[in-house]
Amino acid sequence: MVNMLFARFMVIYGHKFKSAFNSPKELVIAKREWSTCIGRYDEDVLVAALEMAKQTYSWMPSIAEFLQLIEKCQQSFGLPTAEQAYAEACRYASEPLQHAWTHAAVYQAGKQTGWFELRTLTQKQIWPGFRFIYKELCERVLAGEDLVMPAKQVLPAPSSSELFDLINSWAEQQALAVEEAQTCLYYLHLVERNPLRQRLLQQAQAKHPHIEFPPTLADLRQATADK
User: Fold this and answer.
1) How far apart are alpha carbons 113 and 127 in whole angstroms?
2) pTM of the model
3) 168 and 175 Cβ atoms separated by less than 8 Å
4) Domains of the chain, residue spans
């Protein structure tokens, strides 16, 4: 793969490529280092990163720059960035089997890091380990592996009376009037994909910035169960 990559670099960058190496021995050493860093990636990803490099750099990219391009190419495989994956894993660590994960790699990274740890440890404590695990999972995906995605376990929709009771309990926790809580949490009556639901949630957050609003019914159940 490295020989193919360097051959393409030579065609794309011409004399600029040749001038980057002072001797054949230096070229051999460079190939060895590149092979160590990119050998685990699938050919399709390397080709995509190469095409991106051609449009981005007027000189042959460094290894670090090329790895950054590979990371960008991950998005074409549906893989979020490590930061996005971490935020999603933390947000749904309480009930991971009830969330529709953006990618199996995010779920597996959360599971291997530990749902309890994600809920209880600080970002400084947990982020390095999560990032390492997620990076390895992304490399496996880019190499062609299909990771296991858990079947989503959907909780039954609450009856009107149950939802009313949940909101009442939440209102008591937040020291809000029941009528105000019912108004603020009206978005929970809407299906999750309804765009109005997100707007109503944002309006409630803007009105009460000191309150953490449950984005889903599962979150509301969890919040009231922790009472």
Assistant:
1) 9
2) 0.48
3) no
4) 2-76, 82-142, 160-225
